[in-house]
Amino acid sequence: MTEEATRRTPGTPCWTSLMVHSLAATQEFYSGLFGWTYHSGPGQLGPYVRAEQDGRPVAGIGELPPDRQLPVSWTTYLASDDADLTAERIRCCGGTVGVGPLEAEEEGRLVIAMDPSGATFGVWEGRRHLGAQGAGVPGTPVWHELLTAETTMIAKFYESVFGYDTEAVVAADFDYLALKVNGAPAAAIHGVGNALPRDQGPRWMTYFETADADAAARRVTELGGQVLAPPRDSPLGRLATVADPEGAVFSLLRSDIPAPQAG
Hints:
By secondary structure, the protein is of the alpha+beta class.
């Protein structure tokens, strides 16, 4: 088994998944943007496909029932060795478990939950399927970040549930906490204050690797999506914030600049 296919340390972002109203149209958009191909995945929650890049799984896309007019957004899944125990910790620490724990056929066990601020995230106890692979290749998830009003209170929830060490990133007027697993940043909490859109609330953001953030942002528009924040340089690299045709927000990142250093 290759290193990237080994079991993920608890708390590590291991998967990202999207529930949409039109599965076929969404597949076409992301195939046009990233070159993804698709294979059928577990169907407990309805039609579902796994997106692959160069034959490696990178993300999941499912279809909502026709009568469920829910907001469409990417969901970050955090690794767990015991989804049932993690679900209990979520409840005890003030979060809400909305789905599960439930079996995803022989692939693993999942939970969909909300933290105390209302941000949705997933928990994945991998068995046959251990998560996204091929890190660093365009079209693969490269970073995950919780956007919220401020970091201090919500960080305590994630520390208690997943055992993270947190460390502030030193930057002027920049409320940013690294969530560290085994001493290394695995994800982050970004406090954006009043810049948090009221119609969206706190949410996890998935960053997808791209070879050229500017060209990828133009491609999003060509495919029927929107550029919400144009390409710009950041401590993470050259990035753009975009939305697919159904409104799911994600970021495009050319990560040739090292991630922010905690201190």
